[in-house]
Amino acid sequence: MRLVLLGPPGAGKGTQAFKLSQILAIPQLSTGDMLRAAVSERTAIGRQAAEIMERGELVPDDLVVGLIADRIARSDAVSGFILDGFPRTVTQAESLDDVLGSHQLNCVLELKVDEQHLLDRILGRAMQARENGEAVRADDNQEALSVRLTAYANQTRPLTHYYAAKGLLKTVDASQPMDRVTAALVEAIA
């Protein structure tokens, strides 16, 4: 099963990708985690990415796509994978299609949540971190969420049209309790 998980910041993509990876016994592939691993392992892509990140620049699509191509070629991804955080743009989705070749995606799952619910979640996450004596994510505030939602609307939301046109998009109400969202995602895949 080859899946992509889409949704705005705070929708629960990481949480649900982790749960689905356990249920389906396939790896959760987070581009951020993969980049950090490639840099620490000093792979060819990791060395290139490290130089770019040290300059404070974004890692270009061709390197990220190369990283994903390398990762999905590993033995643990033969049965499938869940992409969490990629693609973020239609251009990246087209590149992913090229990488996958005849082994195209089975399903694209969109987590849909209204903006007020997202804000409540993110502020709640920040409050819980403070109460637990943990560091609060720098982007867990109303201003950062607004910027992130605008970027999502401009860059990532067009992916829903791209994947809907391919007949791959399934939308789930992610404002429900976590376990209900997981159940709805599993049902959407089936």
Describe the SSE topology.
Layout: E1 2-6, H1 13-24, E2 28-30, H2 31-41, H3 44-54, H4 61-72, E3 81-84, H5 90-100, E4 107-112, H6 115-131, H7 142-156, H8 158-165, E5 169-173, H9 178-189
Helix pairs in contact: 2-3, 2-4, 3-4, 4-5
List keywords for this structure.
single chain, Rossmann fold
What this model shows, in words?
The chain is an alpha/beta fold. It has one domain (2-189): P-loop containing nucleotide triphosphate hydrolases (Rossmann fold, 3-Layer(aba) Sandwich), CATH 3.40.50.300. Helices cover 57% and strands 12% of the residues. The protein is built from nine helices and five strands, in the order βαβαααβαβαααβα. It has helices at residues 13-24, 31-41, 44-54, 61-72, 90-100, 115-131, 142-156, 158-165, 178-189; strands spanning 2-6, 28-30, 81-84, 107-112, 169-173. Strands 2-3-1-4-5 form a five-stranded parallel β-sheet, sandwiched between helices. α2 packs across α4. The longest helix is centred in the middle third of the chain and has 17 residues, at 115-131. It is globular. 29% of the residues are buried. The mean pLDDT is 88.
